[in-house]
């Protein structure tokens, strides 16, 4: 079966207070905890700065009983751009039965009916229908000897406040992990936006391709690549000409990247569990050695999703006086093939990511 990735695109600002939950797919804001997961802030392994939340993806796997959310964080220090040590990706899971037990402890808070079958092979959205319901879910936080959780506090955002969990006072030392409980006001935050989803094949044959053709023509004029109009990309004549043409800079990988995303240049995310990533520059020759096995169960990791260059322009600080930005080409996330999880765990599992710089960032400005 031909691989058809799911494409994530901007779908408006998040303006309503406390309107996002662990099953909300979003850009920026603060992470929304799966019930039972403890709130923690993380520090950059390079500069010790506090990592900023970049995206949240609700992605339960087909035939799995677990709710499953992945959060990506990054350091906004320019000196750390492009370095994987300045990023962190965390996977959180919880069984439906565990949520029911947690909700009983929280005075039987109502929950939206979100099921694993709403995702992956059978999915055509990322839980967006559940977001439209009137369910009110309060993430449960566990108290332990390492940290103390305070009351829920909203973020201050120009695009609209988003709920967060505040912590006070204590840092996680001992284990050497770059984790810390800090005052919410000290956490840098990007403006928050919804992500909507469609299959990549949905964009094939669309008539509204002026923006895509503009980008391709600019690239053709600058690099001397015979790209042609988007409508004729699949034709044999133009298609063969494109494949045989060599860009001036010799970067055929980037040329292929541009051609592939031309169907939807505004895509901010590509999702294809156990699929193939789209490299923006030369694929590392030792990519398989770079992907370490799962630290928890030892299983190999598989590609799950990647962040795209168009996301960069949306990552702006909630503080208008701040110059908080983040630069990258693409960020590829690899997760445990077995999606292992210890029942009752309150700590997310850290996964692996690969960061590639964009050789021509100005195309996406």
Automatic annotation (TrEMBL):
Swiss-Prot/TrEMBL GO biological process terms: apoptotic process
InterPro entries assigned to the protein according to its UniProt record, in alphabetical order: PDCD2-like_regulator (IPR052815), PDCD2_C (IPR007320)
GO cellular component, as recorded: cytoplasm
Domain Programmed cell death protein 2 C-terminal: 251-356
PANTHER family assigned to the protein according to its UniProt record, in alphabetical order: PROGRAMMED CELL DEATH PROTEIN 2-LIKE (PTHR46421:SF1)
Stated name of the protein: Programmed cell death 2-like
